[in-house]
Amino acid sequence: MSNIQDKVVIITGVSSGIGESTAKELASKGAKLVMAARREERLIKLQEEIQMNGGQAIYKVTDVSSHEQMEELANYALKEFGKIDVMINNAGVMPLSSVHERKINEWDTMIDVNVKGVLYGIAAVLPSMRERKEGHIIIVSSVAGHLVFPSSSVYSGTKFAVRAITEGLRQEECNNNIRTTIICPGSVATELTDHISNSELKASIKEQSEIAIDPANIARAIAFAIEQPSDVAINELIIRPTIQQ
Ligand code: NDP
Question: Which residue of 51, 164, 167, 172 is 20 to 30 Å from 143, comparing CA positions?
Answer without folding.
Answer: 172
